């Protein structure tokens, strides 16, 4: 594979699929060879837009296309298990959008399937592949601010301002409000603050959370307090009823790092070390626009050429740990998705077992 382009299939045709494909077609070592949707018309329109040679009106045809090396799964959360599993069963490598699945059980099933097939599998947590986020993590790991004591992060959007809103609110059928599609702020937006905290601290030993729920039973906004046996804490917030600063800070025993906005694709951050002048770190223009998804695509292709079945930047155990934390938060606030009560998840009020960091 080292001398050839990596051949991609795109499964789903929504906004994030379009954004990823737009970045992918600009990479010289990538080739998008097929796209699939549950509607042939949608696949045809998407294929024409991006110059993709094959368009399928079903997922199975894409999964069984032997010309594809890796499939990017961009369906709603509720379909990740089915779509990614279908591709893995057919021998394809997979990059799957976040939140990785609806719950930790589904995530563990995909990881086990990938390992059994010896296939590459990665969560599309583009934040972990961002060069400036990687620089921030390296500084923290090197002790630039001492021992981490507290992480703060928020991600909220004003749902009533989205084009799909009607009369100042999102309709109940919208994917952010629909339990059947894994709706709510947590899986769509809260996965970023949780993943940021766990990138720096690992899996928490305890989770506390509160939420405002919609009439449909999904979280409109959620606040979570995570704690670790080291004494570290993380204060996290997500919302689909109000736009937030999307800021983050990491406080240590010897300093602090502030990310003033867009912490998951930062333009800059400031390192404050006790007794020293602040240092500003900025994104390299050569790395592309802030919102580029090319870094995660490049990491997938690097790993495939190296014969790796998972990425060291987005390890599968880290993805499973984040899913366990999201499960714990949903347990605390009482959010359940259809069918979960009969599939082995914890019932409301029972705390899932967490692995200490």
Ordered list of secondary-structure elements with their pairings:
Elements: E1 6-11, H1 15-24, E2 30-36, H2 40-50, E3 54-56, H3 59-63, E4 70-73, H4 80-89, E5 93-96, H5 104-117, E6 121-123, H6 126-129, H7 131-141, E7 148-156, H8 185-201, E8 206-213, E9 219-227, E10 233-239, E11 248-252, E12 255-259, E13 268-273, E14 279-282, H9 294-305, H10 316-333
Summarize the structure.
The protein has 357 residues and is α/β, with parallel strands linked by helices. The chain has helices at 15-24, 40-50, 59-63, 80-89, 104-117, 126-129, 131-141, 185-201, 294-305, 316-333; strands at 6-11, 30-36, 54-56, 70-73, 93-96, 121-123, 148-156, 206-213, 219-227, 233-239, 248-252, 255-259, 268-273, 279-282.
Outline the structure in words.
Helix content is 31%, strand content 22%. It contains ten helices and 14 strands. Helix 4 (80-89) packs parallel to helix 5 (104-117) and helix 8 crosses helix 10. The longest helix is centred in the last third of the chain and has 18 residues, at 316-333. It is globular and about 60 Å long.
For the sheet with most strands, the description reads: 8 strands, mixed
What is the terminal-to-terminal distance?
37 Å
Helix content: 25-40%
Low-confidence stretches: 342-357
Task: Supply Rg.
Answer: 20 Å
How many helices? 10
Strand order of the largest sheet: 8-9-10-7-11-12-13-14
Series of secondary-structure elements, N-terminal to C-terminal: EHEHEHEHEHEHHEHEEEEEEEHH
How many beta-strand elements? 14
Overall pLDDT metric: 93
